[in-house]
């Protein structure tokens, strides 16, 4: 079942959304201008990568101690 | 007799192909539905569209030197929007040439360039919009600020009048080849300000997990450069 809202023009909801990290802080957006048009990029994987690096680091140190 | 048998076999193969394709879309739709529910709390302020590169058709565009050449186009394969409780065919005439300045096309182009994006990096490209008073107002912004081709602007649905941000996630396979692109239209602006009041929260960890699940499903169901 579908609610046909393709052509509906409802009032714009107020407020905003933020993509947040573990501590509830909004992830930063980086402004990118290409051919005069402004876009933004957001690195949503940074936290995961740093976790991965931490894990790798731990594994390496475990190997070292052995 | 042999010809009749060949025709029947062909019909059977086509039906099986259609059935497999429908099943593939239903699986993908279920993933988008889970993403909507778990990450975006089923908010009716979001619309999710999955784009692929059209395997058959392209369009002729002018390149930088003024010559016409054929470029691939991105077409919507399916959509999850508020109110839908099961998969159904998408009703959209939108498409974006890869050379377009639409955020969907820019995200796809960046993902296609393996040197600019790691295979596991599906971080979004975003574009923000002011409040529009009318469709004409919106089209004017698309044409003059976002520099999107007039024929593409005409195909944009009225739903977009109230959209404040679009974020586009390219989804690439293990070799860095784009399998598809998830575009999320948000009727509230996406912000990175700490001080905003009345701000909804999207958990980045949940979002990343859902995107990785979606990517795994795409890889498993055979999405790739030639869909």
Summarize the structure.
Chain A has 66 residues and is α+β, with helices and mostly antiparallel strands.
Descriptive notes:
The complex is a heterodimer of chains A (66) and B (227). Chain A has one helix spanning 46-65, and strands at residues 16-20, 29-34, 37-42. In chain A, strands 2-3 form a two-stranded antiparallel sheet. Chain A has one helix and three strands. Chain A has a domain at 29-65. Chain B has one domain (2-220): GAF domain (Beta-Lactamase, 2-Layer Sandwich). In chain B, 34% of the residues lie in helices and 27% in strands. Chain B has five helices and eight strands. In chain B, strands 3-2-1-6-5-4 form a six-stranded antiparallel beta sheet. In chain B, strand 5 and strand 6 form a beta hairpin. The two termini of chain B are 35 Å apart. The chains are: A alpha+beta (66), B alpha+beta (227). Chains A and B meet through strand 1, strand 2 and strand 3 of A and strand 4, strand 7, strand 8 and helix 5 of B. Strand 1 of chain A pairs parallel with strand 7 (189-190) of chain B, so a sheet runs across the interface.
**What's the story with the biggest beta sheet of chain B?**
6 strands, antiparallel
Secondary-structure element pattern of chain A, one letter each: EEEH
The Rg value of chain B, from CA coordinates, equals 19 Å
The DSSP helix count of chain A reads 1
Tag the structure with descriptive keywords.
heterodimer, A: alpha+beta, two-stranded antiparallel sheet, 1 helix, 3 strands, 26% strand, disordered C terminus, B: 227 residues, alpha+beta, 6-stranded antiparallel sheet, 27% strand
């Amino acid at each position: 079942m579908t609610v046909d809202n393709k052509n509906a023009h409802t009032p714009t909801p107020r407020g905003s959304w933020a993509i947040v990290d573990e501590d509830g802080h909004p992830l930063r957006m980086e402004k990118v201008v290409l051919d005069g048009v402004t876009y933004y990029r957001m690195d949503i994987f940074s936290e995961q990568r740093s976790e991965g690096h931490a894990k790798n680091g731990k594994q390496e140190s475990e190997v070292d101690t052995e | 007799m042999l010809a009749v048998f060949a025709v029947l076999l062909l019909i059977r193969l086509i039906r099986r192909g259609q059935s497999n394709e429908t099943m593939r879309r239903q699986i993908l739709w279920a993933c988008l539905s889970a993403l909507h529910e778990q990450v975006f709390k089923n908010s009716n302020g979001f619309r999710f569209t999955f784009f692929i590169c059209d395997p058959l058709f392209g369009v002729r565009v002018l390149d930088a030197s003024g010559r016409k050449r054929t470029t691939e186009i991105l077409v919507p394969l399916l959509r999850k929007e508020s109110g839908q409780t099961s998969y159904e065919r998408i009703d959209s005439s939108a498409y974006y040439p890869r050379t377009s300045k639409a955020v969907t096309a820019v995200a796809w182009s960046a993902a296609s360039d393996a040197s600019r994006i790691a295979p596991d990096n599906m971080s979004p490209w975003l574009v923000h919009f002011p409040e529009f008073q009318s469709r004409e107002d919106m089209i004017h912004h698309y044409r003059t600020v976002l520099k999107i081709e007039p024929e593409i602007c005409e195909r944009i649905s009225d739903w977009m009048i109230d959209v404040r941000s679009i974020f586009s996630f390219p989804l690439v396979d293990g070799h860095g080849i784009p399998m598809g692109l998830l575009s999320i239209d948000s009727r509230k602006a996406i912000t990175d300000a700490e001080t905003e009041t009345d701000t909804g929260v999207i958990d980045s960890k949940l979002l990343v997990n859902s995107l990785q699940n979606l990517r795994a499903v795409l890889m498993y169901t055979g999405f790739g450069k030639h869909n």
